Amino acid sequence: MTPAAEADPVLSVRDLEVSFPSEAGRVHAVRGVGFDLYPGRTLGIVGESGSGKSVTSMAVMGLLPDYAAVRGSVTLGTRELLGLDDRQMSEIRGRELGMVFQDPLAALTPIFTVGRQVVEALQIHQDLDRNAAWKRAVELLDLVGIPNAAARARSFPHEFSGGMRQRVVIAMAIANGPRVLVADEPTTALDVTVQAQILDVLQLARAETGAALILITHDLGVVAGTADDVLVMYAGRPVERAPVGELFARPRMPYTIGLLGAVPRVDSAERRPLLPITGNPPLLVDLPAGCPFEPRCPISVAECAVEEPVLTPVSPDGEHAAACIRAGHIADGRVDGAAIYPVPRAPVAPAAAIPRERRPAVLELDGVSKTFPLLKGTLLKRRVGSVYAISGVGFDIREGETLGLVGESGCGKTTTLLEVMNLRAPEQGSIRVTGVDVSDLADRRQERALRRKLQMVFQDPMGALDPRLTIFDILAEPLRAVGEANRETIGRRVDELMELVGLDPEHSDRFPTAFSGGQRQRIGIARALATNPSLVVLDEPVSALDVSIQAGIINLLNDLKAELGLSYLFVAHDLAVVRHISDRVAVMYLGRIVEIGTVDEVFDDPRHPYSHALLSAIPVTDPQVERTRERVVLRGDLPSPTDSSPGCRFVSRCPLHPALDATQRARCVAETPELTGAGGSDHLNACHFR
Amino acid sequence: MIVVATNLTYFLASLFLDPRANYLQLRPPRSPEEIDRSLAQYNLSPATPLLDRWWHWISDIVLHWNWGYSPVGVSVNTQIAFRIGVSAQLVLLSMILSTVLGIALGVYTAGRQYRFADRFHQALSIITINVPTVVASLVVVLLAIMLNQSLGTTLLFVAGAQSPTVSGFWPLVLDRIRHLVLPTVALTLISYAGYHLLQRSLLLDTINSDYVRTARAKGLTRKEAIRRHGLRTSLIPVATSVAFAVPALFTGAVITETIFGWQGMGQYFTSTISNNDINGVVAVAAFGALMTAIGAILADIAVVVLDPRVRMAGS
Amino acid sequence: MTANFPGPVPTVDLGAEPSTAEKRMTRARLSRRRLYLRRFLRSKGAVAGLVILGLLVLFALLGGEFTPYSYSDVDFAGLTAPPSPDHILGTDSAGNDTFAQAVHGLQRSLVIAVSVSALTTVISAFVGAVAAYLGGTTEKVVLGIVHFLLVVPSFLILALVSQKAGGDWRVLIVVLTVFGWMYNARVVWALATSLREREYVLAARFMGVGRVRIVLRHLIPNIGSLLVVTFTIGVVATVQGETALSFIGFGVQPPDVSLGTMLNDGADTVSSAPWLFYVPAVLVTLLTVSMALIGDGLRDALDPTSRSGGGA
Predict the structure, then answer these.
(1) Chain B positions with Cβ closer than 8 Å to A
(2) What is the pLDDT of residues A135-167, one digit of tens each?
(3) Residue C188 forms part of a structural domain
(4) What is the pTM of this model?
(5) Mind listing the pLDDT tens digit for each residue in A629-683?
(6) Which InterPro entries does this one have (chain C) (predicted)?
(7) CA B234 to CA B306: how far, in whole Å?
(8) What is the spatial distance between Cα A146 and Cα A165, in angstroms, rounded to a whole number?
(9) Higher pLDDT, A332 or B127
(10) Which of A122, A394, B219, C250 has its C-alpha lying 20 to 30 A from A613's C-alpha?
(11) Does the CB of C204 have a partner CB in chain A at under 8 Å?
């Protein structure tokens, strides 16, 4: 079944090359990309940051800055797009090519109503009068799922949530029935339940317009669920191309195989270590000859460094192509029958031998609440109420245990974590760290003693390290803060720490900018371990990293936990990562824990309707599973947590709620559900009816 | 704030200025008693305790809106009323000119980033913004003198706000314009560059913003996208800075007014200090503070008009 | 948009054996400092500014060697004499040698500008950073004072005080400093407030690092580039302020000489003895413009987000 036989490609890209000038020399961001896009089909372009996937889409749209040098050919139908000037391109953009961007918060002009912006998109290319355009704009907004579109069209972008804004952007992109839709990481900035909605809207939009879709993403799960064909990019070049099923089932390029092995699966209880790809992607300046993946490739041979391989068909029908000279030897993720990526040793935590109840608790939260004042007025701010950031949060973490705290943005997970780190008595409830109640801390000395036991790793490996300090000073800071003054002791400890996280101690006199993202995160972890803490709080520690790097960090965290008997409080929005690393998991919604239990119980048998929906929204990196499984797509967005009235906070979006009878529904609204479990189980959930 | 600042100035001025100096040079010389008596009628005599003078001064303002007299008996109210008009002509005109010129240049050069026109205007603006006012104004004067000499007639006057001998409506207007040109040019010259550079950098920020890119993806050309989507957003901070510049312009016209011999607020400011005119100085200070407040309010209004986000939050 | 385009990211592959990694590291680190220098030097304006400033400083320091006159010497034989071999830049109406006066005036103006700018930068850095980090009441009080001082017509009070002081340049420095730090303090405060939210500051706090230490170790070094720029811009502003004040007679006063007083003298005789105006006018303009160019060049060179490399 060759699509080429059915129709001519709507968009053809050949030998596309893009380069930019930079301090270090010319950056060759895209180096010879080519693909055909057929009507009605979805092409997924996958790659890590810097792989050139976004630049490719910008080149197609003609939106690259003037100083970018673009070569090659982009033909839409029969028309060559490269070389058209801005005016000629503007005739095509919006009418034939529609685009959806990554950051919906920034993509809309803040000073115009969304209706006006959609109207503009219509009027640029169609001769419509004001009323007709407005009517059509409202229809479009309605189509993409903006509730009450006629009224909401008069709102400004800042009155919409991220998901709603992305819908508006999609409405603008399809306003003129384009032949090609380009979506550049359309869901990366969104929460997972909203991501599921937006992917549905995109498919709907594609179906409605009959357009072909280019979906650019780093998320293999998204590709597995939506793409028909996949192009994997590395270092500015396509390294593998195949129909989606074929690619996930029989990858032939070691990089693709590595990527697939590096992603934890949310649907698997198996706890094998992930397969990280060592090293970092190359700088795209003065690339050496040979395969760019060669330095990181576990099966490279001398020939690999000689010449850069081109995409060559590896399947009889020519649909599957890979750029690897050893592709012929690779089958089922193995080369000549041997595993390409050696499976790392699985760490065994000594604590796991002791039953949970017998291990001491390192962190206990009981009924912790935190409110923020709700202010009104521009000049004179007065308090008109309180926002419950978290309310009645309680859990405990035992020695050697990892608790994953999950939920969407605004659910209160970060607030919970900051409440713990502040070491101050909470507004309500109690916090005990290694058995010490923080409200009993009398002075700074006692506080410092407790801080020794409690350390934190931050999300952003760039932001968490002071750029003006050397790695040595960064690692020495926590030691000095707890009163260690002996230079020699500090020096020895810093060397130890560097080795512990897999860095060369020789490099401790460098500044953070000399390290890559993954290495910086290792430094952040080393810093947290400096004082030999019992509990490490991890705030989204891998979300800023590429998958191939992320796997290494996750493995490191697991090793350290086993080796040092650490406990983790792990906050993340990526549930696959949480499943992989946690022993227990707590699901938060609008400041409350709605479900808590061991990780397998919660993931395999979610009780609360929210946990259920959240888990079902996560794409799985397996096209077959992904396309056949049943999904619960939540309606709407997270409401704002201003309301402190009783009742279940999930009521407005609950898929179970409409199915209940009237008295049951009344109970949901009137009575705040408590965390309860069946029998003596510690798998608890806060739903009256589950 | 205005009230506190004004009262503070009153005490400072009373401490630092000695109105008796105005009488010391008079021939025939007066005795200290005579001087005190003359000053006492204007509430300026150092013989009266400072607090009494202050009370007298503030009650006159609050009850009669009378800001006092200079050491030689000139009413501050009359002076200010007259001078505000003079300054306003100069300041408002140059403010409008420099804003329009600055924004226009900013928009023009931002669209041509790093090309010749951009580099040229940027260099020019960096020079004009950094040349001290004195130098800039005097250069304008020199050029005007050269122009007049080459024409053989005085086309543009380098001093004063108007000629005393002209009568009739149209001749008067023409005369006014001929006086107004040079100081306006001088003031505009020193203030446009700030708006130019600000507008340029703000517009460049918005040109590279995601929403301008979205607008281009809809099918607007780069120029249209910048004009329709980038410009108004980038105007917000410029409008704020123009509004805040109002007070600075009034007092900042000191040099210009001095050089061009205009009897405006700026010139009043120097003459009151040199003449130990305590009440005059304080009135100037109050005026300055009032202008700052007006500037702040104007800035707020501008933001509210231009930015729907603030409008929403306010209502 | 920026995020989509790759820039030069100096990274090190730790998988490589230590020796090559070592070499690459050293290169990465050296290039950081060299990068600033290279970015600065690429700006032609900044280099020109630096050269001009260098010449001006040389002139102020060594200019006295080239003339037999001191700035206060009076030559009754040549009042308001145009430039001649005897007085290379002529004399003024009192018979002072213009060249000698220019050297002295430039010295005076430079000393005032540099000291005021240095003092205001230090004060504003400390006040701004402390207010931002401590927050709460301290922050409110400091901002209140700053805003109040910004409303007070400072130019007027400056004039009042310095006139009373009889034009002593040391008093002028003090007064200009007292009324000059607020604006910058506010800028520093704004920047430090954003730094306060940075994760590395949060990290330090969670490690139990003391407040003063956080301000000194994390906040101030990270606003360093801003301070460097503030300093150069401050010099320009002070020169402008000083010349304006001296011009209207409230700054440096005779018999002392600054560029401002020279301008004042020159202004009266713009058409009859233009050299008296040209000399200080050229000097002061060169001084402010060169400093401004240097400031611009530094800002571009030190600002990590500056994209001057991309389009130039």
Answers:
(1) 209-224, 228-229, 232-233, 306-310, 312-314
(2) 999 999 999 988 888 988 999 888 888 888 999
(3) yes
(4) 0.79
(5) 777 777 777 776 665 667 888 888 888 888 888 888 888 888 888 888 776 678 8
(6) BP-dependent_transpt_permease (IPR050366), MetI-like (IPR000515), MetI-like_sf (IPR035906), OppC_N (IPR025966)
(7) 10
(8) 9
(9) B127
(10) A394
(11) yes
Query: Chain B window 189-218: which residues touch C at a Cβ cutoff of 8 Å?
Result: 208-210, 213
A516 CB neighbours in chain C (<8 A) are 9, 11-12
Q: Is residue C308 part of a domain?
A: no
- pLDDT attached to residue A188: 84
Order of strands across the sheet that contains A361-376: A382-398, A361-376, A428-433, A436-437
Using CB atoms, which residue from B12, B130, B281 is nearest to C292?
B130
Eight-class DSSP state of A419: H
CATH number of residue C119's parent domain: 1.10.3720.10
C15 pLDDT more than 50: no
- For residue C51, give how far its alpha carbon lies from the nearest alpha carbon of chain B (Å): 16
C151 with B1: Cβ contact below 8 A: yes
In a domain, C283, yes or no: yes
Contact status of C76 with chain A (Cβ, < 8 Å): no
Question: Does C57 touch chain A if contact means CB atoms closer than 8 Å?
Answer: no
- Range of lowest pLDDT (A164-168, A233-237, B276-280): B276-280
Judge whether A158 is closer than 8 Å to chain B, CB to CB: yes
Q: What is the pLDDT of residue B313?
A: 47
- Taking alpha carbons only, the member of A401, A391, A449 closest to residue A423 is A449
Chain A, 343-372: which have a CB under 8 Å from a chain C CB? none
Asked whether B158 and B256 are in contact (CB, 8 A), the reply is: no
Q: Which domains does chain A have, with CATH numbers?
A: 3-339 (3.40.50.300), 351-453+533-685 (3.40.50.300)
Angle ∠(A286,A290,A295) on CA atoms, nearest 5: 85
C135 inside 8 A of chain A by CB: no
Question: Residue A242: what pLDDT?
Answer: 94
Counted domains in chain C: 1
Residue C82 belongs to some domain of the structure: no
Whether the CB of A513 is below 8 Å from some CB of chain C: the reply is: yes
What is the SS3 assignment for A303?
helix
Per-residue burial over C238-252, b = 16 or more CB atoms within 10 Å of its CB, e = otherwise? bbbbbbbbbbbbbbb
Instruction: Give the pLDDT band (50/70/90) at residue C133.
Output: confident
Residues A405, A588: Cα–Cα separation, whole Å = 7
- For residue B74, give every residue at least 6 positions away whose Cβ sits within 8 Å of its Cβ, in sequence order, or none: none
* Residue B180 contacts residue A27 (beta carbons within 8 Å): no
Please indicate if any CB of chain A lies within 8 Å of the CB of C17.
no
Q: Are strands A69-76 and A11-20 parallel, antiparallel or unpaired?
A: antiparallel
N- to C-terminal Cα distance for chain B? 26
Q: List pLDDT tens digits, range A589-599.
A: 888 899 999 99
B79 and B280 Cβ atoms separated by less than 8 Å: yes
Distance from CA of C197 to the nearest CA of B (A): 23
Asked if residue C92 lies in contact with residue C238, where contact means CB atoms within 8 angstroms, the answer is no
Distance to chain A for C184, nearest Cα, Å = 22
Please give the residue of chain C at the shortest CA–CA distance from A459. Answer: C199
Across the range A215-230, mean pLDDT stands at 91
CA distance A159 to A316: 54
Averaged pLDDT of chain B: 79
For residue A58, the chain C residue with the least C-alpha distance is C4
Chain segment A263-287, per-residue pLDDT in tens: 888 877 777 788 888 888 888 888 8
Q: What is the token pair recorded at A405?
A: 């705290």
pLDDT-derived band at A382, boundaries 50, 70, 90: low
**Residues of chain A above pLDDT 70, percent:** 96
Question: Is C22–A506 a contact, with Cβ atoms under 8 angstroms apart?
Answer: yes
Which residue range forms the structural domain that includes residue C186? Answer: 36-64+98-302
Contact list in B for residue A159 (CB cut-off 8 A) is 312
- The answer to whether residue C7 neighbours chain A at the CB level (below 8 Å) is yes
Q: Do B127 and C289 touch (CB under 8 A)?
A: yes
